[in-house]
Amino acid sequence: MTHRQPLPPDLFDELCPSSLVPFRFGDKWAALVIHCLADGPRRFSEIQVPLRRVTPKVLTQSLRGLERTGLVSRTAHADPKLGVHYALTPLGRSVLEPLAAAYAWAAEHWDELLDAQERQSWGGTGVS
Predict the structure, then answer these.
(1) Would you state the pLDDT for residue 74?
(2) Quick one: pLDDT band at residue 128, thresholds 50, 70, 90?
(3) Helix axis angle, 96-108 relative to 110-121, nearest 10°?
(4) CA gap 96, 103 in Å, rounded
């Protein structure tokens, strides 16, 4: 297996534009999981580092959903030292570019998205 840099714990901080993307690729966390796997296979514990706000149960559900849709593969190695790795399939890799465009769009419209969410959280209609 190729050595890659560990995923940084702050890869997705609370103010990450990706959290404001108003459409989903799978469940709430799927796009972030896909991003974690962009550089190659990862163990569950590696994926958990930047997704520390996600419970192990929910992360497992997200990974299983991505497996069902054919975006992620799961490989359980016979050698316990190698453990289980998750990787993007070719179909999963094909979604990286659209996700990057969605992240860029969210970053460009950051203030508008935050304003809309704030209006909704206060029960406002957004109509002046």
Answers:
(1) 97
(2) very low
(3) 70
(4) 10
Q: Are 92 and 3 in contact (CB under 8 A)?
A: no
The burial class, CB within 10 Å (0-12 / 13-18 / 19+), for 105 is middle
Does the pTM exceed 0.85? Answer: no
67 and 113 Cβ atoms separated by less than 8 Å: no
CB within 8 Å of 3: residues ≥ 6 apart: none
Distances (CA, A) of 59 to 45, 106, 107: 10, 23, 25
- Residue 55's nearest CA partner among 15, 83, 28, 86 is 28
Whether the CB-CB separation of 99 and 34 falls below 8 Å is answered with yes
